[in-house]
Amino acid sequence: MHLLTRARPRDPAQVLFLALLGLVAAGWALVALDGGQFLTLESVVGIQQRSAALGIVAIGQTLAILAGSLDLSVAYLISLTSLVAAEIMAGQDGNIGQAVAAVLAVSALVGLVNGLVITGLRVHAFIATLGVALIIKGVVDHLYDGPAGAVPESFQVLGYSRIGPVPVSALLWAGVAVAAWFLLSRTRLGYRIYAVGGNEEVARLSGIRTGRVIVLAHVLCSVCAGVAGLLLASRLGAGAPTVGTDGGYDLESIAAVVLGGTALAGGKGGVAGTVAGVLLLAVLDTLFNQLEVNSFVKDVVRGVVIVVAVAVYARRTQGRPA
Amino acid sequence: MRRALPVLAVLAALLTAIALVNPHFLEPAGFLAFLKRAAPLVILAAGQYFVIVSGEFDLSVGSLVTAEVVIAARLIDGDESATWPVLALLIAAGLLVGLVNGVVTTKMRVPSFIVTLGMLLVLSGAVFLWTGGAPRGALSEGFRVFGRGGLGPVPWSVLILVVLGAAAIRLMRADFGKTLMAAGDNERAAALSGVRVDRVKIFAFMLSGLAAAVAAILLGGFAGVSAQVGQGLEFSAITAVVLGGVTLGGGRGSVPAAMAGAVTLEALFTLLNLYGVSGALEFTVQGVIIIAAIAAGAVRLPRKPTPRTGDAHAAS
Amino acid sequence: MLSMRGIGKSFLGVRVLSGVDLSVTAGEVHAVVGENGAGKSTLMKIICGVHAPDEGAIEIDGRPVSFGHPIEARRSGIAIIYQEFNLLPERTVAENVFLGREPVRRGLVDRAAMEEATARLLDELGENSFGPRDVVKRLPVAQQQIVEIVKALSVNARLVVMDEPSAALAEHEVESLYRLIGRLRERGVAVVYISHRLREVFDLADRVTVLKDGSRVTTLPIGEITPGELIRLMVGRDLGTYFPPRSAGAGEVRLSLRGAGNHRLRDIDLELRAGEIVGIAGLQGSGRSELARAIFGAEPFTTGEMIPARPRSVREGVALGIGLVTEDRKAEGLALRQSVRDNVLLVARAVGGGNRAAVGGLLERVRLSPARRDQEVRYLSGGNQQKAVLVKWLTMAPRVLLFDEPTRGVDVGAKAAIHDLMRELANDGMAIMMISSELPELIGMSDRIVVLRDGRIAGTLPAGASEEAVMRLAAGEAA
Amino acid sequence: TTDKPTAATEPAASAASTQDSGTGAQSKFFVQADFDAQLAMRSQTPEGPEDRPWEQAIAPKMIDTAQYKKDGPYHLCFSNAAIDNPWRQVGWKTMQAEVGLHEEIGKFTALDAEGKDDKQISDIAELQAKGCDALIVSPNTTATLTPAVTAACEKVPVIVFDRGVETDCPVTFIKPIGGYAFGADAAEFLTEKVPAGGKVLALRILPGVDVLETRWSAAKVVFDQSDLQVVGVEFTDGDAAKTKNIVSDYIQRHGKIDGVWMDAGATAVAAIEAFEDAGLPVPPINGEDQQDFLQKWKDAGLTAVAPTYPTYQWRTPIIAALRILGGEQVPETWNLPQPKVTGETLGDYLQPDMPPLHYALCGCEDLPGFPEAWGGKKS
Ligand SMILES: Nc1ncnc2c1ncn2[C@@H]1O[C@H](COP(=O)(O)OP(=O)(O)OP(=O)(O)O)[C@@H](O)[C@H]1O
Ligand SMILES: Nc1ncnc2c1ncn2[C@@H]1O[C@H](COP(=O)(O)OP(=O)(O)OP(=O)(O)O)[C@@H](O)[C@H]1O
Ligand SMILES: [Mg+2]
Ligand SMILES: [Mg+2]
Q1: Which one of B275, C93, C306, C311 has the minimum C-beta count within 10 Å?
Q2: Do D and C touch (≥3 CB pairs < 8 Å)?
Q3: Which of B118, B192, B283 minimises the CB distance to A304?
Q4: Cα D3 versus chain centre, distance
C-alpha cells in the first residue's frame, strides 16, 4: 500500500501473452508425444472459431467491468438475439439489413435497461443483470421451444468463410477488440469508464456524470453480446434458444476478463488482457480436444487456471492493507 | 430491519395469493409441506448471508450441493451402514470447501467472486470425473429420511431448518456475528480494532459450505440422486439474501430477513407453479418481482470517504 | 464576481452552516479561516456544486446560479482543490489533471496536448521530480497534492478555490505556490484560500473571512487585523485560559522507543509516561500517523526496540494495553452502519477482555445521550462519533492511548469535552500521545511537544512553546 | 475459401392439430407420415441375428457402399454431442467396448461437444482434418448441426445415430424405431389401464428437443383419441426434486391423479415417491429401462410399462462403419428394434447388480469389461 513497498508490476496482459506462448509450446510438445500435430491449419482455425463468440462477449464484458459493474444477462441476450436475427432473416438475403439493425436495437435496449436499473433504481449490478437475464429467459422460453428461423447462405459467410487461416468471425472479433481498445484509450467515454470504475466519487467530483457512463458501458456490453448472437446464428444457420446458456457465456466471459488481468472492482485493465485471456481458454480447449481429455478434467483445469492467474496478479499489484 | 419490510410485504402478498388458489395451503399439513420444500434454499440463504454480510460472494454452493449428493450416492451405494459415516464426511467436505474458498479469498487476495467461480468449475468437474460423467450408486433409506421423512407430522427438514435458523440467529448476536458485521461494513476500522478480518471471513465461508452440505443432504433425501440437483442454487441463494434486504458489499441486513427472502422466493416459485399459466413466462415474472422488490428496499447511503493514500482496497 | 448570501446546510440533522455570507471580487485572494469543523470545506463544496445549500442564494456576476453537479460549477468558471484526496491512483498525472474534460481533437482525446499542458503547469510550479506520464499511485502524498493543484489550475477558471492546498507541501513547494497565486491574481482570477497556517494567510490574502461553528464571524481586509486577533476571532476566547490545566508531573515510563523505525520512520527515541500528554507535531506526510500506527502495531516497527515489547500486530498492541484513536474517523475508526453500542464494544468483542459492563458508565462520562446508543453511528455528529471511538478504547482500560487528530472536524463543544477528558485520563495515570495539525490545540494540551520531519524526530519542545518554534522545526528551517 | 456446406437446408415440419383434451397444440415437430411409419414398425419383425438386436434392422432398404471400400486398419472418428447424462454415459461406455472388439480399428478419435452446438460444429470440422476413414456423429440438435454434417459428407462416409439431421447425405442413419413409438407405447398403456375419464399428468423434460418432442406429440395423438383427461403437461428439466414437487402439487390440487405419462424415465422414481409420500397408491405410470425404476416397479408391484430408447444403438455405428469400409451393404435408415419392458419381461431386464441409473437395454452383457466398466458388481 505504500510507495516504497510497491514493486513496479508488469502489465498482466504481457504476462498472459507470455503464458499463452508457453502453453502453445507445451501443447506442441504434448501433442507431439501423443503422435499428433498441434498447430494444424484446422486446429488454428478451430481455436479462432471457438474463441470468436466468447471473445466478442468478453470485450463487452470488459467495458462493463472496467466501469465497476458486470453483466450476467449476456448469455440469454445472445440466445435472444440469435433468434431475432434468424427469424427476421427468414432465409432471405434481402432481410439481413433489417435483422442486423433489429439485433443491435434489441441488445442496445437491454443494455439500457440494465444500466438504468443499476444507476436509476440503485440495484446492485449483480442482481439487476440477473433479474434482466431471467426476464429474457422467460420471454425466449415462452416464444420458442427449439431452433427457429433461418439464416441465408450469404450471411453464413460470417460464420464459415475464412481468408487463408483467418476466419471471418475472428476478423469480426478483432474488429470489435480494436474498436473497444480505441474507445478506451482514445475517447472521452473510455477515459470516463476508467474513472468511474476507479472511484465513482472522485469521478463525480471531477465533473463526470457517472450515471451516464455506466449506462453507456452496459449498452456497449449488450451490443457486443448482440453481435455474438449474430455470429452464432450465422454458424448454426438458425436461432437457438439455448445457444447462449449452453456456451455459458455469462460466467465464462467474466472469467476471461479477470483472467486477462482486469480488476473485478473496475478501473484497471483493458481489452488486450481480455483477448489474451480468451485465447488462452481457447488454446486450452483445443489442447484438451487434441489429447481427447474429457470435459470434466477441462472444467477442473479451467477453474484452477483462473484462480491462480488472478492470485498472481494480486501478488504483483498489491501488498496487504493495514 | 427497516430494509426487510418490502420483502415481508411481498411475502405476505404471495402467501395470500397462494392460499386463494389452494386453500389446503393454509392447513398445517399444506404449510409444512411448503416449508419442507423451502428448507434447503432457506438454509443455503442463511449460509450465503454470512458470506455476503462480510462483503464477499459464494458462487460455489450450487455445484457443491450437486457434488455432495453425487458423492453420497457413490459412497453409500445403497448400503445402510454407510449412512452415518458418509453424512459426517459430507459435512466435513462442505466445511473444507468453505475453508479453501475463504483462505484463497483472504490470504491470496483473489476476489471471492472469482475464487468461488473457480471452485464451481473445479467441483462440478472433479465429481463427475470421479463418477464418470453421471451419478452412480444409490442413497440409503437412512440417508433419505432427512429429506423425505418426518417426526410425526413435522418433516425432518423443517425441524433441521428451525434448529439451524435459530443457531444462525444466535451466532449473529454473538461476538462472532458482530465482528463479522463490522468487518463487512468497514474492513479497515475492524482490523484497527483488533478484528481478525481474515479469520472471521474464512469462518463465514465455512458456514456457507456447511449450509450447502446440509441443503445437499435434504435435497438428496427428498428426491434422490440427480446430476441437476444443485443447478442455479447459488443464484437463487444470493437473490434470496438480497431480497431480504441484505446489501451486497457487506455490513447490512439480518439473518431472519435473509431467510425470509428465501421463503419469499420459494413462495414465488410455488405460486407461479400453481397458476402454472405458461411454464416459461414465470421466469419473466420472477425477474421483474426481484428487481422491483430490491429497488424498493434500496436506500441511498453516504459514499465512503477515500483515504489519502488512495489504496482503499476496493477489490470485492 | 461571486457572492453568497445566507447559506445554510446540515448533514443528517447536524447543522454545519447557517446564514453564511461570502463575496469574492475578481483578482482578489480571499482567505477563509476557522477551526477544524468550522464548515470551511462544506462552504467550498457548496460553491463548487458538490453539495446543494439548504438555504441561501449564490450569484455569479450578479446572475443567480444553483449547481446540481460539479460540472455545472466548472462550466461557470469555478475550479477547486479539494481538501481530501481526489485522484485516481491507477491513472497517470495528465489523465488525472484533465479528468472529466479531456481535450479532444476530431472527437478523439488529444493525449499530446494533455501531457504538454500538464508538463507546462508542472514547470510553472517548478516541479520537476515527476512528469505527466507518471502513475499517481506511485507518487508520495506531497506530489499527489501538487497534482491536485495542477488539476485545478488547468481549468483556466475565473475563481479557484484552494482548500488547504499547502497542507502536505514542503517550504520550497509552498514558495512556488505563492508565485503561482500571484500570477493568477494578475490575470484577474479570484482565489479563495483556506489554510490553518496563519502565516500563509497574512502573506497571501487581500481579505479574510472567519468562520466559527458554521457561521461567519466577520470579513476584514488583511491589513486591519493581527494574527493574535484573528486567532481570538476563530476560537472565540483566549487560548491560554481555555485548555484544562496541565498535570502536576509525569509518573513512571509506560512505553519507550529506542532507535525504532520502519519503512517510513527512522531511529525514533521516545518515552511516554503515566499522567503525561505528549504532543506530536509535523507537516502532513511527516510520519505522525505512521508513528502512532507503528507503536500500536498496525504497521509495526521493523528496527530498534520498544519497551515493554514491540507489537507485531494490532492484537498484540491491544494486549500491551495500547489504544489508537485513528486520524480518519470514517475510514478507520468506525463501522458507520453499525450501532453506537456495537461500535464501542467492537474491540472488546474482537480481542476479548475489556470491561463491557463499564460501557454504560463510560457513555455517561463522555455525555453521549442514551437515546443515541442504538442509532447507527453515521447519523451522529462528528463530535459524537469521536466520543464513540474514545469509549471503544476506554472499554479496554488502556495504559497508553494514542490520539491522531482527535478533534478534526469536531465542533467546539465536543472539542472542549474531549480535551477535558484527555486531561482527566492523564491525571488518572494514563500515558497519552496526541497528534494534531492544529498548533494551538497541540500547544495548549501537551506537556511536551515532539516534532517530526520526514519520519525522524526533528526536535522536542517544552510545554507552551511558540507556534513559530514548532513550525520552524517541522518545516526544517534553521532553528 | 469456405468451410460452409453448399447444400441448403429446409426444416421439415408439418403440424397436425386435433381436438383438444388438455394436451394443448400439437408440436411443430410432429410429422404424420413418420408417426404412422413408426407405429407400423412396432409390429414388424426385424431382420438380423435373433440375439443381437443392435445388428437387427426393421424393413431395411439396403444401399451399396462399394465406393467407400478400403483396407484396414481404419481410423474411426466420433463427434459426440455430450456425455452429460446416464443414458449417454452407458451408451458411450458401450461404444468404447464395441471398438475394443475390432482389431481392424487402428485408431478411434472422439470429441465431446459438451452439449454446445457451436463446439460440435468446429469439432466436426476439426475431425475431418484428422484423416478419419469414417465419421460417426451423434448430433446435439438436428437443425443446427445439419450444415456441418453436410460438409463432412463430402470428405468422409458419415454415420449419424440417435438424433437425425435434415439431410440424407450420411451413408446411414441409425436409430431405434423412434420417439413416436416410445410416446405411443406409454400412452396406449395408460389408455388401457386408466379407467375412462381418469386424470393423467404428463411430465416432460424440456421443450424443443426433437427426440423428446416426438414422444410427446405421439402421446398427444393417442390421448386426444382416448377418453382420458390430461390435467397437466409440465416440464421437469429432468430434475428429480422439481418432478416430485410438481407431482405433489397436482395431487394436492386434484386430490387424485389416475395416471402419469413421462417422456423419459430419469425422474420416474421421484414421481412415484411423490405418491408414496402423499400416502396414495401409485397409479399406472411409465418409466424407462433404468434399473432404479425397474427395481421400484418390482418392489412396489406397480402397474407400469417401460418403453425404451435402447442404449445398444451405440454399438451399431461402429459395426456400420466397419461394414461400410468393408464395402458391405447397410440399411439407408437403420431402424433398430425398440422393445418395451412389460410386467411379463420385467424379470429379464432387472439386474440388481447394476447401478440404479444403468439402462437395461445396453446390449453390453457380452462385451469385455462387463459389468465393472458400467459400474456394476460381478454377481
Ligand atoms: N458529508 C458529510 N456528512 C456528514 N457530516 C459532514 C459531511 N461533511 C462534513 N461534515 C461535518 O460538517 C462539519 C464541518 O466540516 P468541514 O469539513 O466543512 O469543516 P472544515 O472547516 O473544513 O474543517 P477542517 O479545517 O478540518 O477541514 C464537520 O463537523 C463535519 O463532521
Ligand atoms: N510517501 C508516501 N507513500 C504512501 N503513503 C503516504 C506517503 N506519505 C504519506 N502517506 C500517507 O498519507 C497519510 C498522511 O501521511 P502521514 O500520516 O505519514 O503524515 P501525518 O504527519 O500523519 O499527516 P496527517 O496525519 O496530517 O495525515 C498517511 O496515511 C500516510 O499513510
Ligand atoms: Mg476542510
Ligand atoms: Mg496522519
Answers
A1: B275
A2: no
A3: B118
A4: 30
